[in-house]
Write a structure and sequence with these properties.
Elements lengths: L1 H6 L7 H5 L2 H14 L4 H19 L3 H25 L3 H29 L5 H28 L10 H7 L5 H13 L3 H31 L11
């Protein structure tokens, strides 16, 4: 059973998912399976905890919010494994994707808002600019990922070549951004953390946009495109 669950882990993901949260997530799936819990339960609990994280960030309780976000990340991996194991329906899959997409964007907004309570507010116009980059950049990256799957026969853009898979380990996203925020909080600068998230999101967006342009050019030249993981 454990080997079967391992096989359902994502082949390409961020470093935390692949190397840190894998083991606890698989144990959680095993315990839930023994208890007869439905696969959708992971996404439901993940959504509820995501709301808790939002509230804690909003009030400037960053360490508590980060602690709760660890549970969210583990539940997220467990939900993916459980969905693949139980062959969940389309509605459950869409709910999980919506949770994965919506809540991190709300978290960055809440983090910026909580800076005032923490005592390190950003100037309002600057804060708005930072949020536009962090939120808009994240949505743009998601758009590139979706367009790549549609245009290149379902291939994840992160799985094209080893470079893409390696960059996915640290590419801007919920988990990588939380690491940045935690590191900034360690030195007492949560304000710098959200600014760094915006910069890293922009850098990641440029990287993915360039790779998508390269793929598009190859496709126009009728070059066969496929993932290096399938060779």
């Amino acid at each position: 059973m454990a080997q079967a669950d391992e096989a359902r882990m994502p082949r390409v993901a961020d470093a935390l998912t692949l190397y840190v949260w894998r083991a606890p997530a698989l144990r959680l799936v095993s315990w839930a399976g023994e208890a007869g819990a439905p696969s959708a339960s992971f996404t439901i609990v993940e959504s509820l905890l995501s709301l808790v994280v939002f509230g804690l960030f909003w009030k400037g309780h960053y360490w508590l919010g980060l602690a709760a976000s660890i549970a969210v990340m583990i539940l997220s991996v467990a939900a993916i494994v459980a969905e693949r194991s139980a062959h969940s329906n389309v509605t459950e899959q869409r709910l999980h994707r919506a949770t994965e997409t919506m809540f991190p964007l709300l978290w960055w907004w809440a983090w910026a808002h909580g800076l005032a309570a923490y005592g390190r507010p950003l100037e309002p116009i600057y804060a708005t600019m930072v949020l536009w980059v962090a939120v808009g950049g994240t949505m743009a990256i998601g758009g590139i990922e979706a367009l790549a799957r549609h245009r290149f026969n379902g291939m994840e853009i992160h799985a094209w070549q080893p470079l893409d898979t390696r960059f996915r380990l640290v590419s801007a996203g919920r988990n990588a951004n939380l690491v940045i925020l935690a590191a900034a909080l360690l030195v007492g600068r949560p304000d710098s953390g959200i600014v760094l998230v915006a910069w890293w999101t922009l850098i990641s967006l440029i990287f993915h946009a360039v790779r998508f342009a390269q793929l598009t050019e190859l496709q126009a030249r009728r070059v066969k495109i496929g993932s290096w993981l399938d060779r």
